[in-house]
Amino acid sequence: MTSPDFDSWGRVQRRNRAVAHPSDFRRGVAGGFLPFGNGRSYGDSCHNDQGRLFAMRPGAAISAFDPETGVLTADAGVLLSEILALVMPHGFFLEVTPGTAQVTLGGAIANDVHGKNHHRRGTFGGSVVCFTLLGSDGGNRLCSPESNTDLFEATIGGMGLTGIIEQASIRLMRVPSANVRQTAVRFSDIDGYFDAIDAIDAKHEYSVAWIDQLARGGNLGRGVLMAGDHADDGGAAKPPSAPRLAVPFSPPVNMLNRLTLKAFNALYYGRAPSQPVTGIVPWSSYFHPLDAITGWNRLYGPRGLFQHQSVYPADRARETTIALIECAQKHGAASFLTVLKRFGETRSPGLMSFPRPGFTLTLDFANSGDRTLRMLDALDEIVIAAGGALNPYKDQRMSPAMFEASFPQWREMEAMRDPALVSDFWRRTAMVLNQELQPQRHAASA
C-alpha cells in the first residue's frame, strides 16, 4: 500500500511512499526497509523511496513509569509530547528535549537529538537506559551500555539503520516546575553574543540565541539571547495541548521571503529588552514555540525548505558564524529560523552523533532550486574549512565528500547497519562512498 503522509518536514521531495508492516521484516520479505516515526526529520534520512517504510506510530504506548527513579519505558512510536503529558504532573521532565515535542521516542534516539542544554547534559542518547532492537535475522536484542554495547552505540544517532527499535527505557530528570525562569536580552552584533555566552552558560541550564540573519554592517549577527532554568516558583505546568493555529495548505509562493522576514526581524529584535529581563514563561513556549502552529513548514511554499545546521570549533566560532551569515546574504537568501547555541564537552554514547564541542548555527531557507543548492554548497565549504561538520539528520543534499569529512566513522556504521535497512540519505552518501572504495580495494589486492 502507499501513503501520501510519509514526507519529511522539509517537503522538498513529495510523493506517495510504500508502507510495510514489521512482520514483513521478520519474514525477510525482499526489498529495503526503513522505520518511520512522525516525519520531523528535515531531509531524506526518513525517506526510502526505492523500498518501504514501517509506520511506528500506530498502537504505540507507554508501558511503564516509575516516579521514584524517573525511568520510563515506552514503544518507539510514542511522541515526546505524550511522555511529557504523563511525567510532568509527577515533577519530571526530559533531560534533553529538541525544538519540537512532536518527535517519537525512537526518532529521538535514532537522531540523537539535542536541546538548549547540551553544554550541561549532552544529547538525548545520554538519557537512554536500554532498548530492544529487532533485526532482519529475527533476533530481538536488548541493547544497553553493558549489553550489545557496539549495537547500542551504533543505534544512537544511527538514523534507524541498525534495526527496528521496538521499545526503549529512558531516564528523566526531576524539576521543581516544567515552566522556565527565562532571562532575555538582545545583543547588537555577533560580538555581543560571544562576549556574553561563557558567563550565561556557566550560570544557566539552558541557553539559545535567535539571530537576525538579514542584519548587516555594524549590526551583523544581532539577536536575542534567551537563558533559562526550571523555575522553583514556576507553579503547575499546563500539559501539552493541541496547536492553537494551523497552516492548512501550502501557499503558491514562499511567505517567508526577504521582504516579510526583514519586517519580522526588525519587529522581533525591537521588542526584545535592551537590558536583561527575567520572568517565568511556559515550558511549551520556551522549548517548543512552533508546536503551537500546525503545518508551519507549509509557509515556505510548494517547493519546501532546506535546513543547514553545522557545528564548528569554539576557537573559530566568531569568524565562522560571520562567514556563514555573510555567505547567505551574498546569495540573496533569507533564513526564518536562525539559531545559535553552544555544544559542550559531554560526549554522546552514539557512534554517529552530530554534536561535538563548539558552536552550532542553524539556518532555514526556502527551496529556490539551483540557486539555493549553490549557496548550501558554499556554506559547506566554510564549515569544512573551519574543521566543522554538517548535521545529517536535517540534510537532503550534502555530497558524499561532505558526509565523509563530517563523519569519518561512517565505515564503522556501515558495518553495523542491518542489511535489510536503508534510507535515501544513506544511498546517496555512504553507499556512494562504499562504491568508490571498491576499485581501490581491488587494486590493492591485485
UniProtKB/TrEMBL annotation:
Keywords: FAD, Flavoprotein
Matches recorded under InterPro entries: FAD-bd_PCMH (IPR016166), FAD-bd_PCMH-like_sf (IPR036318), FAD-bd_PCMH_sub2 (IPR016169), Oxid_FAD_bind_N (IPR006094)
Top-level taxon: Bacteria
A Pfam family this chain is assigned to: FAD_binding_4
Record's keyword annotation contains Flavoprotein: yes
Keyword Cell division: no
The FAD-binding PCMH-type domain, residue ranges: 1-175
Protein name: FAD-binding protein
